[in-house]
């Protein structure tokens, strides 16, 4: 029997109110995950929680062992992954405090281990529609019912970190029409897909990115500001995720479990 069916990348704010939480250590072929996994019950569903930066936020974005984190979730039996994150806005209409349920990503990272398929068998897993349509629909409906301003789609550009963007970079991203900027969605979301798991991202907008400073509209973003807004909204995102978990169907009624069917190269 699986120890968990749903995985959430998030810290103690998500599980500290649960009555029964079990710490689980998972060894992976890719090294240690960011922390022990916490497994608890929500609405009769077994859920595994893992803080992607470690429980004390000691792992910077470019040092996260994403492959170990996703492999550990899969080892516990997880079939669906909820991947919330703090993010910046690249567009004026996407305001701090809004939630964006992203449907696309743009990878601007470098040097991250971003596949489980290093050979000798070769797979090309398509990320054309990387995020699960069923989970995205439930996320949007739940966020709106909670009264939070929600953008039902958006493109997240993922930068390497730990530095923020320059004004020039940020203005470029904005000019491309992308809505959200973050440091962790890649390869996290793609690795979930390579393991045929459903994945959904909820980007909690904490600030306007630095490119908007060039127009004299906002102050430069700081790490302190980002974390302040994120913690202010911790209860809102926790409520959304717990309600989503209750509403997820028992069976995967989406294309996600079949993404590997035609991904392997054969000669």
What are the main properties of this structure?
267 residues; alpha/beta; Rossmann fold; 26% helix; 22% strand; globular
In short:
It contains 7 helices and 11 strands. The longest helix is centred in the last third of the chain and has 14 residues.
Helix and strand arrangement:
Elements: E1 6-9, H1 12-15, E2 21-24, E3 37-42, E4 45-50, H2 66-75, E5 80-89, E6 99-100, E7 104-108, H3 133-145, E8 150-151, E9 155-159, H4 167-175, E10 180-182, H5 185-194, E11 198-208, H6 223-232, H7 234-247
Parallel strand pairs: 1-4, 1-5, 5-11, 6-8, 7-9, 9-10
Antiparallel strand pairs: 2-3, 3-4, 5-10, 6-11
Helix pairs in contact: 2-5, 3-7
- Supply the number of helical segments: 7
**Care to count the β-strands?**
11
CATH architecture: 3-Layer(aba) Sandwich
CATH class: Alpha Beta
Shape: globular
What sequence of helices (H) and strands (E) makes up the elements? EHEEEHEEEHEEHEHEHH
Give the rounded overall mean pLDDT: 91
- Under CATH, the homologous superfamily reads Nucleoside phosphorylase domain
Low-confidence stretches: none
CA gyration radius, whole angstroms? 18 Å
Classify the helix fraction into a percent range. 25-40%
Main sheet record: 11 strands, mixed
Structural class: alpha/beta
Counted up, domains total: 1
| CATH topology (fold) name | Rossmann fold
The proportion of residues in beta strands is: 15-25%
Cα-to-Cα separation, first versus last residue? 36 Å
Description of the structure:
This protein has 267 residues and is of the alpha/beta class. The chain has one domain (6-258): Rossmann fold. Helix content is 26%, strand content 22%. The protein is built from seven helices and eleven strands. Strands 1, 2, 3, 4, 5, 6, 7, 8, 9, 10 and 11 form an eleven-stranded mixed sheet that branches. The chain starts with 5 loop residues before the first strand and ends in a 20-residue tail after the last helix. The model has no long low-confidence stretch (mean pLDDT 91).
